[in-house]
Amino acid sequence: MDRDGRGLGNRAQLLPSDPREPTEDAEGADPGLLAEIRHGPRHVRDPADPRRIVIGTPPIPMGRASGHEVWRLPHATEAGWADDIGYVFGGDFLFAHLLVPEPVGADLARLTHQAYARLLTFVRGSRYPHPLRVWNYLSRINAYERGVERYQAFCRGRATALTEGAVPESRFPAATAIGCDAPGLSIHLLAGRQPGTPIENPRQLSAYAYPLTYGRRSPSFVRAMLYDGPQHSRELAISGTASIVGHVTMHPGQLQRQLRETIRNLDSVMRGARALSPRLSRLHPVWLKVYLRDPDRVREVDAVLRAWAGEDSSLLYLRGSICRRDLEIEIEGHGAVSRPDRDDPARAERDPPVGQQDPSATK
Ligand code: 3EB
Questions:
Q1: Structural domain includes residue 351
Q2: Which of 211, 263, 225 is nearest to 242 (CA)?
Q3: In the predicted model, what is the mean pLDDT of the chain?
Q4: Is the pLDDT score of 5 beyond 60?
């Protein structure tokens, strides 16, 4: 595995870094912390610290996995609350999150619509108007309510808010939508000062173009988002990826075969990104987050995934329900390449400064 994504050093990355690496100063502060995302039995927000959240997808112990995710910037961040929207920002990036309780009998489509409308308004009013990557967690995702599956109700609410906000498909973020036992609708996101470059997967129909047999409104996300990270890294945030080819579930209910199909999809998305520039040809996953319906099968998944991803990538396993009943596994990822090495003239020639090499990535 290529180590370039790691060559940045812990403080310069906007991707999950090893939380065991000490970064706190003498006062116990962590000035460059943009987000710390832990996983547990419940969604948690701490009024005293909007930088740290807990997502209700319990970790599945496996090997030396650290169990949580830390995003750091090479400079100090600022944090606060806007009503119940927690936010942290610094440099070119904003982390924002919202946890909405779901009262008994509430309409999930409406609840989602309102949550997204508020988040969109907040993000647009900030200096970081471009959502790059969004994570959505809802309870009982495959249960039926008011005649529709709850995931479909969620998709409808999200799509309505994005339509009202005049967000075109070309500006949809990369996303994850996972079901969990924890109550409430939890949404967290990374937004940027600049838009990213969306990347689709030629093996899969774009989710926003799925036929409406899956629900009245299709899922509003792109397969991956490429953007400039801190200190001239290039980052690829890969959406939750499953065993879907075209728009059809492959190998329904068969975990091992779904895993292999999912890996083919991840490879295909990354191939699309690598083709964009010589520098991106070095792109590899440095971080993979795996959602499993059945935690007892983590070992057999880990064996295959380790062999594919290599020893240098971090793997985190979580218990979660995938949005189609026949899907057993979903994998999201993050890849990065460090800045071109200025001391290497050959590389400098191959890789002109960011912004010139990839005109489609700039506004
Ligand atoms: C899929 O490809 C699998 O609705 O935001 C993956 C990632 C999936 C994100 C979402 C759904 C979402 O359709 C499901």
A1: no
A2: 263
A3: 88
A4: no
Tokens linked to 88: 């942290």
Distance 28 CA to ligand 1 centre (A): 38
Q: Determine the distance separating the centroid of ligand 1 and the alpha carbon of 308, expressed in angstroms.
A: 22
Q: Whose CA is nearest to atom 13 of ligand 1?
A: 207
The catalytically annotated residue of 149, 328, 330, 332 is: 330
- This model's pTM is above 0.85: yes
pLDDT tens, position by position, 310-329:
888 999 999 999 999 999 99
**Index of the ligand 1 atom closest to the CA of residue 136:** 5
Whether 52 is covered by a domain: the verdict is: yes
Task: Calculate the alpha carbon distances from 207 to 169, 204, 267, 362 in Å.
Answer: 10, 8, 18, 24
Q: Are strands 144-145 and 69-72 parallel, antiparallel or unpaired?
A: unpaired
358 assigned to some structural domain: no
Q: Whose CA is nearest to atom 9 of ligand 1?
A: 176
79 Cα: distance to centroid of ligand 1 (angstroms): 29
Type of residue at 45:
R
190 part of a folded domain: yes
The total of structural domains in the chain comes to 1
Domain of 209 in residue numbering reads as 2-19+30-339
Neighbours of 47 (CB within 10 A): 8
List pocket residues of ligand 1, CB cut-off 6 Å. Answer: 136, 175-177, 207, 219, 221, 239-240, 242, 244, 323
Looking at residue 277, which CATH number applies to its domain?
3.30.1330.40
- Our answer to whether residue 261 is catalytic in this structure is no
Going by DSSP bridges, is the β-strand pair 314-319/285-292 parallel, antiparallel, or unpaired?
Answer: parallel
